[in-house]
Each structure stands twice: as C-alpha cells, then as structure tokens.
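Session log. Operator J.P. requested a structure for one protein chain; no other inputs attached. Running the standard single-chain path with token output.
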Amino acid sequence: MSVAFSRRPHDTSETGKKRQTNDGLHKRCGCPRRVWAKCPHPWHFNFSWNGTHYRHSLNKLLGRKITSKTEAAAEADLLRAAIRGGTFPSTAAVMPLPSLEQLTLAEFGDIFMQHCPKRRGKHRGEARGEDDRAKLSRLRQLRGTRGPLGVMPIRAITEADLEAALHALTAAGASASTFNKYLQLCQSLSKWGQKKGYLTSAWLTVDSDLRRADERQGQRHRRLAPAVIGDDGRVRTLSEEQRLLAAASPRLQRLIIGAIETCCREDELMQLQWRHVSVDWIQFPASHTKTGELREIPISTRLRAVLEMARLDPAGREHAPEAFVFGNEVGEHAPFPKKSWETARLRAHGVTPQWEPGKGRLTAASRAHLAAINLTFHDLRHEGGSRLLEAGWPLHHVRDMLGHADISTTSRYLNAERYGLRESMRRSDEARKVCTTVTHSAVETVDGAADEAELDDQKPLIN
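Structure written below.
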C-alpha cells in the first residue's frame, strides 16, 4: 500500500517562517525528518538554477546506492557544481561526473570555494575571495611526487605529495610566510573534506614534518640593534630605533613608536580612530583585529606623550572622534607611508636611497641594501613584545598585548623558551654567588678547625 504525501509550501501562512530546506536533500518516505540520517530509504536531490528545477533520486541518478547523509551531501555538491558549470546531462541517466574516488583537487577546490566560508578572524562567515582562489590555482600547478596536484584524485594525495609541492614552492623563492599560508590552505582543504565526506583520512598527520617545518620557518628573530657604548661610557653608535626615528617623517615616527609600544599590526594602527582612544586605554573593535575579537591595550607613558602631540590638527583644534590617529595632518585616512619607510631604513644605516627616474621605486642597488638590512614594519611589533617579555611581563599578558588567540603562538612568536631559560640562568647565577660566599666561609672554618687539631696533637699529653 503506497502512501501519498503532499508537499508543504515553502512559506507557511500561519507563521511566515521558511521551512527547513535541508540543503536540497530530502527523503520521500514516512519517516520523520529527525531520523532521515538513519532510515534506509533513498535520498532525493532538489535544486533550482536559472529558472530550471532539478529533482532526482540520487540512487537512480548516480547508478549506485547512497547510504549516508554525509555522502549524499558530498554528491549533491558535485551535482550543483555540474549544473552551474553547464555539464549536467539532459537525461537522468548515470551521471558522467567523477565519483568521490575520482574527484581531482581542481574539482574539489571549486566546491571548496563555493561552500566553505572563512572560519576564523574578523572575516569569519564570509565567502572566500580572490586571494584564496589565486592560492588554489597555484597549488594545482605544483607538482607532487607523481605529477601536478590539480589532476590527482584527492583521495590519492599523500603527505609526501604535499611535502614535495610545498618545498618546490620554497625552492622557487617563496617566503616563510607564503609557505605557511599554502600549508594552512592544505590543512583547511583536508579538514573540510573530511568533515563533508570527500576524504576518508587527513592529508597531514599530527606529527607531520610539514607542521614542524611550518613552526621553524614561521619564526623570525630580527631585533632592533641596541646602542654601542665605548669603554669610556660614551655612546659610539646610536641604537637602531633612534636612527630610524631621526630619519623618519613625523607621521612615520608616530607609527614606529605606536607599533613598538602597542605591539599592534600595521593595519590595526592604520584603522585606529580617536574615538577608540581614552586616557589610559586603546580599544580595538573586533572588526579591526585579526582574530575578530575586541582587544584593549594600556597606553604607556611614552605613547601617551606621542598621542598628545598628535591630538590637535594644524588649526589647533582637537581631532574629531571619527578622525584617524595615524592618518594625515587633518585626520583623514591615508595609506601606510611605504616610500618614507624605505627611505628611513636606508638612511638609518648610512645609505642614501636612489630612485629610478619616472618609476617611483628604488634602484636595484638600493633594493639590495634594503634586503641586507632585513627589517620589516612587522618586526617592530615583534620588538615590542620581546621587550615586554624581557621586562618581566607574564607570558599571558604579552599574549593579550599581541592579540594572539593561543599562548603557544606567543611562545613560538617571541621564542619565549629562550628568554625564559636565560632568565632562569641569571637567577641561578645570582643564587650561586650567595652559595659560593657561604661555601668559602664554611671552608675557612673547617680549615681553621683542622689547624687547631694539628696543634693539639703536637702538645704534650698531661696525665
């Protein structure tokens, strides 16, 4: 006996709420929706595109039985991609689409871009942009151990393939930061693929060599050089920070001090407005931080003096709350002064910058000097965090200043273990000095007692 079920309207007149669409997947059985994932009845696919409605049984369409909801959702993604791309067949015969066993990285990447929003930071929930699309395009062209990754079935990709591809990226001149971004993309593809049923196992293991390489390459130890003091106590060479400030424009001076004192990223400083600055605190809204969380930074005495000098516009009036702290003279938003930063770095190291006529960029010789100096604006943030750690700040307070979500990131970012070991050795040396003093006193006492015993032996015995 067959039972007929009437379709419910998309919008109910009583409540005005949309019914659950289940992402286009449903079952035409008498089982409640809550048990569809476990009931044995076939899954059906429903999708509309450019005015055409597609309704099919997945078992009949694919020519095989779909058992789990995860597999049904993965196949539905493939069907939607084929419909959008114009490769869906006109008849309901067996689909000429690749099975999950044959799905290549190129095809999987397109599905990933369409259905996996950004998961972290202030852009969480947003669709992936052209930057991710460009990285995916380049990742497809990189060669694994058995050929280009793009044509390889995703279930056949191994850790060795990714290792060969990413090391080829590094050999082609990619920086450690670029290496990390591609590694994070591979991790995201693997994790999402497992969650949605495309992959049966992860591409990268927990103790992956690539993960360890990521940690090693992500570290950067560039610090600002201190002043050189002669034997007579006089300053022979100013510190690198002093030389940078002497060569910088007033706006760049504020940015340099701001980066060191707040440990903030460049884009966080560039978006900072006066309404976010109070007497003792700077409040960075969630939309301005990399992690997408509100962050408050205490204002140091040095930074407070800089802010007070910048609070007035050229007419002597206070900037409006919407004005930008590190903007131009009238508080308008302005891009980072890249040319001024390049000039300041070169002059701080005794190099006169030379510019190519009509092109607005440094000559090859000046760029070579800049590469040898090897100082980025982000290094100032690292410098600020390192100084706080060296001043005795607890590591979790330094983490909050830097805005890291995980304290292990802070530890690796600042190489906190090295600083901690050095501080422990200093305390050990101080304790050893005390112990040495006590030991010498004890030795002198024992030696004195021994000398008295010798004298007693030499005395005549009295009966």
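Operator note: Strands lie at 25-26, 44-49, 52-57, 143-144, 147-148, 228-229, 235-237, 281-284, 295-298.
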